Amino acid sequence: VQLQASGGGLVQAGGSLRLSCAASGITFNQYVMAWFRQAPGKEREFVTVSTVPARGGGRIYYADSVKGRFTISRDNAKNTVYLQMNSLKPEDTAVYYCALSRTITMSSLTRSTAYAHWGQGTQVTVSS
Fold this sequence. Notes:
The protein is an all-beta fold. It has no helices and 11 strands. It has strands at residues 2-6, 9-12, 17-24, 32-38, 45-52, 55-62, 70-75, 80-85, 94-101, 117-118, 122-127. The strands form 2 sheets. Strands 2, 4, 5, 6, 9, 10 and 11 form a 7-stranded mixed beta sheet that branches. It has a 4-stranded antiparallel beta sheet with strand order 1-3-8-7, with no helix packed on it. Strand 4 and strand 5 (45-52) form a beta hairpin.
């Protein structure tokens, strides 16, 4: 399994970015896909997750801090998950990681330790 994240960069507060995470070596539509982020000196935190029909009913969940501003989507034909980030704030500055799991339980969706596979991370910096 390989995950390749891209799309990070420097943006002013109020701006937008779209992150991408391309997966290979898996049957993509069987995997729960998530985004986490980690700011300097802080623990890795949950951002959003896209479940699949067989595991989570295809529902999407967001952290309260990004709800209404971030949108996760997936293109199963391209084996890619996206994170559209709008109305960015300086506190969104972090390294963003995509992660996936085929066996995760519903109670563990927001726990980074529950994901077996991780992308390399992409830096997002929001200036004030």
